[in-house]
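User: Good morning. I'm curious how acetoacetyl-coenzyme A would be positioned relative to this chain. Could you predict the structure with it bound?
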Amino acid sequence: MQYEYILTEAAYKPHIALIQLNRPKELNALNLQLMQEIKHALATFDQIDDIRCIIITGNERAFAAGADIKQMENRTAIDMLKIDQFETWDQIRKTRKPVIAAVSGFCLGGGCELAMTCDMIVASETAKFGQPEIKLAIMPGAGGTQRLTKAVGKALAMEMVLTGKFITAEQALDAGLINRVVPEELYLEEAVKLASEVAAQSPVAVRLAKESVLKAFDSGLQEGLYFERKNFYMCFASSDQKEGMNAFVEKRKPQFTGR
Ligand code: CAA
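Assistant: Good morning! Here's the predicted structure, ligand included:
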């Protein structure tokens, strides 16, 4: 597939693939095609064994300033229902490999929701997070009321969603929305560092562990614990588990193969 609105590099760094949103003039506003392209790129990278972690980024000025308002302006509820754009987002969520958002500048509306759909967020000091949909007389539709609330708690989520106010990267870090804040010139490099730390682990264990952490978002404790336990036992079916434990005993660095 030829992409129009994203740039991709399957071998950006060892075991790390990159997806860069590329509608800079529109502050990377997420139109339907761009979302389809992200979905396609993620599904493709998910199938490539050598890739162990994926980074999604924008540019210094904007990660993404939300869903494309111009594309939605004249739509009816039935148009929205038929297009059912959030089905694409559900597919994005199903990516098995860890996905890290490297965020600078505006990270708003659907942009913030896209970052929250990723597994971790690394931000530049200039990043601004917000769900400003209320100012358009709509509300978040791609997880903003759910994932934001789970990440930062009711008080801040309610304030952000009902007033549309933005928060800074430092505030987002304090609130538990993101993982790291670094100077603007380092945010992508920092995301690569984090991705490399993940990529150094066993891909099998990483996949099972990611699945298990996500399970905590949509299950009760007991169900989540059973799920975790099954995945824990499953790790023992991998040769990486033997290698990891053997390397520990032999006091050497493990070599994980994803088998
Ligand atoms: N959709 C479409 N175009 C957008 C856009 C968006 N979400 N955000 C910015 N743009 C366009 C602007 O229209 C402008 O285009 P023109 O040059 O053709 O006029 C260009 O990007 C640059 O933007 P500004 O001139 O507005 O830049 P600024 O620095 O003055 O302001 C901003 C930046 C505060 C981010 C402002 O652009 C803004 O408020 N954007 C909209 C943010 C928003 O409301 N996002 C939520 C969208 S709805 C949604 O996401 C629903 C959902 O849950 C999925």
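The chain has a mean pLDDT of 97. The first strand starts at residue 6 and ends at 13.
Let me know if you'd like a different ligand tried.
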